Amino acid sequence: MAQAVVIGAGPAGLMAAEQLALVGHSVLVAEAKPSVARKFLMAGKSGLNLTKEEPLETLIQSYDEAADWLRPMLAEFDAQAVQNWARKLGQELFTGSTGRVFPTVMKASPLLRAWLARLADRGVEIRTRWRWTGWEGEALVFDTPDGPQRLQPDATVLAMGGASWARLGSDGAWVPWLADKGVQLASFAPANAGLLVDWSDHITAHFGAPIKGVALQAGTQRTRGEAVISARGLEGGGIYSICKPVREGAPLTIDLMPDLPVSEVAARLAKPRGKMSLSNHLRKALKLGPVRTALLMEFARPLPDAPNDVAALIKGLPVRHAGLRPMDEAISTAGGLTRASVTDELMLTAMPGVFCAGEMLDWEAPTGGYLLTACLATGRWAGRSAGDWLSR
Predict the structure, then answer these.
(1) CB contact at 8 A, 303 and 310
(2) pLDDT, tens only, 54-72
């Protein structure tokens, strides 16, 4: 029987399994889906953003309230360590202009294949279609193609993800089983999710158009990231980065001309327009372009007459929306196992010998390499902690 069982074969689970195998423990990885790391492979379809090339003190700020909690884990496996890890698996990397790091091949599959081969060489056994269904006494119970299986390892690492993209494996089904054990949990909520907007017909022509040269603000959070107009609302990194304050109820505004003060915008609008239509005047005086003009008309029509009032709207356009996309459509989730529910070693205080990692833990971060970095770092930490537990 395996000394350690890891449940979940995403990046956090595979990293935990590798750490356990490195110190000589037998490891079985149980994955509910027919294949491993499905969310990891899906992320690779857009290039696999591994990490962000930033010093630790800059990197850590993206984890907000969880920064202090994750600090020791990220200090041991920071952006540079992620890159070294990928290179040791034979991957050539490049860093984009914004500091995001990608494999040169812009795919996840070569990295995953090399990683799985190395895990096999180290004796890690992976069982797919093994769905964990909770505990019976001290035993882990699984539904498998060969019927129910019960295992009672000396250490367990849970790495089953949050509650987004259930079709890829992260369905949050584990929540009631841990709650029944007295584990403290924060409710899941969507993170890095698109915004739902009920557009009027005149926006249809702009579906798929990028929104460039703007700043988005919600609460105290402001970003110059881009967004895209979709049939259901607004998508993209700029929207994802202000997800948290929007989720918490802060109004969202768009600064359509972030490089100019409101006084300059008003001065340009105050110039005589003659017989020009307002749209043409906006185009010539401000060079807003069709997309930004369409947004202004969508959210502020009818525009006021006074140039100062129009300028104020251009600098802080209120966005009417219906909230974030549903949680299962979000890239990641907030919520999960609270910091108080685990020790500094990521072991459940209510269940000695059971460790947790990845998106099961209550932290969130924007896209841009931060999610994968923290999954790898917490998986490594939990695996090392479980290895130390077994060695006692």
Answers:
(1) yes
(2) 999 999 999 999 999 999 9
